[in-house]
Amino acid sequence: MQKLMSYMRSAMERYDMISAGDRVAVGLSGGKDSVALLYALAKMRDFYPQPFELFAVSVDPQFGGMPTDYGPLETLCAELNVPYTIRRTEIGPIIFDKRRESNPCSLCARMRRGALHDTVKEIGCGKLALGHHMDDAVETFMMNLLNEARIGCFSPVTYLSRKDLTMIRPMVFARESDCARVVRRGGLPVVKSRCPADGVTERAHMKQLLTALEKDYGDVRQKILGAIQRGSLNGF
Fold this sequence. Notes:
The protein is an alpha/beta fold. It is built from nine helices and six strands; from the N terminus they run αβαβαβααβαββααα. It has one domain (2-235): Rossmann fold (3-Layer(aba) Sandwich).
């Protein structure tokens, strides 16, 4: 836990992610990354030099037309004294049942982001913390390079002028394994996605490719992130 919080504090201070008085909402998907982020921020709230309020928001796509059971997350948020909002949507039925999209991930992601951003603003938060870590940053960079022939990644901090909302990624220096370790050792609840495309996405394929490359080239994820930082790419 201390290791994860150390990585997070380094990123938060380097990129000035949180200011005194901020109302920060965590996008809580229920996966290990967002759960680890929520748990760590709740602990850091007690000692971080810039005092902030913390909230959590889950957007339920209702895959299969059925509401997701977020009960374990509701319990966790209550234990952490974090107000929790669940936004039920019809994204799942629209994508998979009505439209029957052959490549559903992009549209689904856009719709979920829109619902999340709107909900965060509705509860009065100006910042949205997302559970993206170093592995996500490197995978995004590689997908942009190999699939779209362009150099790019998401930013540690992104301001959305249309929504007047700032997105922050406090775990951008942490590894996926750090998140998994915190969830496992802390006995924290995870709500598995019921998305029909879960585990068969382009991101999953890129994860496998990077792991294969590490057999010959060492820690390629750390090397690629270092290159992104040295190039000051997308605000890194």
